[in-house]
Amino acid sequence: MASRTPTAYRCTECGWQSVKWVGRCGECQAWGTVVSSAENEGIARTVKAAKLSETRIAQPITEISTEAASHWATGIDEFDRVLGGGLVPGATILLSGEPGVGKSTLLLEVAAKAAEEHLRVLYVSAEESVSQVKLRAERTHSLSPTLMLAAETDLSTVLGQIDAVQPHLVIVDSVQTVASNSIDSAAGSPTQVREVASALIRVAKERSLPVILVGHVTKDGSIAGPRVLEHLVDVVCQFEGDRHTSLRFVRALKNRYGPTDEVGCFEMTAEGIAEVPDPSGLFLSRSGEAVSGTCVTVALDGRRAMPVEIQALVVKTTAPNPRRVTNGVDGSRVAMLLAVLERRLNIPLGDRDVYVSTVGGVRLVDPSADLAIALAIASANSDLSLPHTFAAFGEISLAGEVRPVASSSLRVTEARRLGFTDILGPDETQIRRAFRVAFDKQPATGSRVSPAHPSTGSFPVQSRTPPTKPPQKKAPSTPLRLVETDRDRD
């Protein structure tokens, strides 16, 4: 008796397969998406070798020409910096970001710059009508006769538009809103996203056509859809920015044709998005006089060194639990620095509220900002200000050491270019010596630092040696007496 071939069941959302029907998918946890599949499991299939043509036979790597895969600039220098020099023919780029950050505005600028070079650009919008896209193009001055617009949500129609226009660049906004009729699932499902991306990537490779895809993100900031989407594309870029600020950053999370440590800076304006080639002054305050509680550090974002001003405020409180409020810096990192200051330098902070923030809304994740954060907190606590020409960078360990950081020479060069003459780096290996150099302006000789009051002009670093107390005589012990009360008498 022949064995019965088991029927395969497949999830229409993520493609997960099972030998029996279940109500809930074991992969994406979706209900009611597991249906019977026409594919039969357990059947051995043999694949015959195909006959290759002369042009498809493998060639030695030394004889392959790279002229067809060279970069061509988009006209936006900051975007080209992130891509490694520009677009590569046949490359597929995925640009993701939160809603309203400016993805469509940036790509419309890219399309307009390419159209100005007499290149045919196909901009497919699956979220807006062509009239809505034109209104934004008029506002950003991105009108060109070679910029072709289409509002399509069907994959076959998008491929038909590519065949009809024969463009040099294709932009699809977005990959989660385009669906294929051959798959029985809603647009944006993992199966649809994988099918749409695979079809567009196949067209890009066959025609040496650069394709830019816009991707949505989830609540936790990751790209919506299957993880395989990031593996299929050649470049993954992330568009970051806060809605309350005009500054935007483009970072490359994956790049097969260039580095992944470059950052592009942009600024949202009323007429669109503008490049910021030198963002040095965006994260510095414009105060005319030195103020206590401020210190400038040189943060490294990719290959770009940017000075960032850190501000701190220390206020005495009577609450049992002092507040620790941070903005732009890691709160756990600040808590660790407060413990180091109180333990290694004897700075009393247990009864004070501490507020630490960055200027310009920038987010600091570089540990080289530890020294500047500690100096700002100490400056706010002692009411001693650091000069405008002072900058500091270095990582602080729990042992009170100032550890070296990467690209110190690049940070020093950028700080000196901006007029910072007093630069405190990891050359001072101990935090006590670094604080003495910063506040006393004296060379660190390793001598013991005596306590001082803030009014004297020197930093109040307390000595850890406790004062000696005269020995006290121990009181004679008295025997325990039980006192009889009226209740005991009753």
Characterize the structure shown.
The protein is of the alpha/beta class and 490 residues long. The protein has three domains: 7-40; 71-277, P-loop containing nucleotide triphosphate hydrolases (Rossmann fold), CATH 3.40.50; 282-456, Ribosomal Protein S5, domain 2 (2-Layer Sandwich), CATH 3.30.230.10. It has eleven helices and 20 strands. A nine-stranded mixed β-sheet has the order 6-5-7-8-4-9-10-11-12, sandwiched between helices. Strands 13-14-16-15 form a four-stranded mixed β-sheet. Helix 7 (331-344) packs across helix 8 (370-382). It is elongated. The relative contact order is 0.08. Mean pLDDT is 83; it is low at 1-5, 39-44, 442-467 and 474-490. Residues 68-217 form the RecA family profile domain. Residues 442-490 are annotated as: Disordered.
CATH fold-type name of the largest domain: Rossmann fold
Average pLDDT score? 83
CATH architecture label name of the largest domain: 3-Layer(aba) Sandwich
Gross geometry: elongated
Element layout with pairings:
Blueprint lengths: L6 E5 L5 E2 L15 E7 L36 H7 L8 E6 L5 H14 L4 E5 L4 H10 L7 E4 L4 H11 L3 E5 L16 H18 L3 E5 L12 H5 L2 E7 L5 E9 L7 E7 L2 E4 L18 E8 L2 E13 L7 E4 L3 H14 L7 E7 L11 H13 L7 E3 L2 E2 L5 E2 L4 H10 L4 E3 L6 H10 L45 H4 L1
Parallel strand pairs: 4-8, 4-9, 5-6, 5-7, 7-8, 15-16, 17-20
Antiparallel strand pairs: 1-2, 1-3, 9-10, 10-11, 11-12, 13-14, 14-16, 18-19
